[in-house]
Write a structure and sequence with these properties.
With 75 residues, the protein is an all-alpha fold. It folds into two domains: 1-30; 41-73, no CATH class. The protein is built from four helices and no strands. It is elongated, with a radius of gyration of 21 Å. The two termini are 41 Å apart.
Length: 75
Amino acid sequence: MSTIAEVERLALDLSESDRALLVAHLLRSLPPFLYDEDEGVAEALRRAADFESDPDIGISLEQLDEQIKSRRKNR
């Protein structure tokens, strides 16, 4: 049986397009990272209730845009 290092070495020898295809197949074989039986509905409802009880926890779209721009500049 191959070790992870051997599989990695073989995968890195593939062309870029073949590696991308392999990655896509491997990712599809995994369960969703954040799996919720209700598909996140309970979390969304909790966050909505939190925001309704304290609107100050939210930020405006303009603030979000500025945070994103700032992160991109700091890369």
